[in-house]
């Protein structure tokens, strides 16, 4: 009986700690609407042993950016307009396809991200590092190829952060389901994919109801146009829904502020591929 009481008390204490973590002194909400232009290029080299090395560069420009709402600090977010450089992504990736297991492809890589809205005085502010690794399973039929990709992503910061508010090393899982359509006799290949991104190690106060959460939903439709045997252009439209929980904690956890940030992003772009 004593053991039962101790167990019940322990559960109640655990629930009390969790409930405390979900109580915030100030709560706000903001909504951001964005329209972007994206352009880039990727160069790849394949070897007969199944290895494929790719190097890519992508530039992102904001054509329209409007943010409205009230933050947890009770400050109204102003509405802004204008076209500007937003981000650049420089990526290196290595993939492998085994002759007997061609439907399974592991890959890994590194991406250097340059942030255009953080100023240019401190590299720790405008540079971000990312590593990723994953596995893609695919099935090819006569008119289409269907694939599922599971990818682990780690975003690393080199600036100083409060670990109660955000991570120095932030892990997420991206799950993408897509299909590519084959048009016989035509140099075009339409495609469509949907991707869910889930947090894996969000700090305690950032979690939603005490749990990790889906922070991005992306869908993209496009068409790949084969120019030559080795080169092609990829025209696409992407819609992205983003959800984030921005935390601000004063000294000694005396005051905890939460701002729920929702983002709706529309992006059009074109990428050149040489493979």
Describe the 3D structure.
With 275 residues, the protein is mainly beta. Helices cover 9% and strands 61% of the residues. It has helices at residues 2-22, 123-126; strands spanning 26-46, 51-70, 84-96, 104-115, 127-140, 144-156, 169-181, 188-199, 214-226, 231-249, 256-274. An eleven-stranded mixed beta barrel has the order 1-2-3-4-5-6-7-8-9-10-11. The chain is globular, with a radius of gyration of 22 Å. Residues 4-21 have low confidence and may be disordered.
Summarize the structure.
The chain is mostly beta strands.
Amount of beta strand: over 45%
Order of helices and strands: HEEEEHEEEEEEE
Largest sheet: 11 strands, mixed, barrel
Task: Give the overall form.
Answer: globular
The overall strand count is: 11
Number of helices: 2
List segments where confidence is low: pLDDT < 50 over at least 5 consecutive residues.
4-21
Compute the CA-based radius of gyration.
Answer: 22 Å
The first-to-last residue Cα distance is 70 Å
Q: Mean pLDDT, as a whole number?
A: 89
- The largest sheet has its strands arranged as 1-2-3-4-5-6-7-8-9-10-11
Structural class: mainly beta
What helical percentage do the residues reach?
A: under 10%
């Amino acid at each position: 009986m004593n053991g039962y009481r101790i167990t019940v008390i322990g559960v109640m204490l655990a629930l009390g700690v969790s409930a405390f973590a979900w109580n915030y002194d100030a709560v706000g909400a903001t909504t951001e609407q964005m329209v972007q232009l994206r352009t880039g290029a990727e160069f790849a080299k394949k070897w007969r042993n199944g290895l494929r090395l790719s190097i890519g560069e992508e530039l992102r420009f904001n054509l329209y950016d409007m943010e409205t709402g009230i933050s947890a600090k009770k400050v109204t977010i102003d509405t802004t307009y204008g076209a500007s450089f937003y981000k650049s992504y420089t990526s290196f990736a290595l993939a492998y396809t085994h002759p007997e297991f061609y439907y399974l492809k592991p890959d890994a890589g590194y991406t250097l991200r340059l942030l255009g809205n953080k100023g240019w005085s401190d590299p720790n502010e405008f540079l971000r590092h990312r590593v990723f690794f994953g596995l893609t399973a695919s099935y090819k039929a006569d008119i289409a190829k269907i694939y599922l990709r599971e990818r682990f992503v780690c975003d690393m910061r080199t600036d100083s952060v409060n670990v109660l508010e955000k991570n120095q090393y932030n892990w997420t899982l991206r799950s993408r389901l897509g299909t590519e359509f084959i048009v016989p006799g035509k140099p075009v290949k339409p495609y469509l994919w949907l991707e869910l991104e889930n947090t894996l190690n969000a700090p305690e106060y950032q979690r939603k109801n005490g749990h990790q959460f889906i922070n991005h939903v992306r869908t993209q439709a496009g068409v790949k146009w084969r120019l030559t045997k080795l080169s092609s252009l990829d025209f696409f439209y992407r819609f992205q829904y983003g959800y984030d929980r921005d935390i601000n904690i004063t000294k000694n956890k005396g005051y905890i502020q939460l701002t729920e940030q929702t983002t709706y992003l529309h992006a059009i772009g074109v990428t050149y591929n040489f493979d």
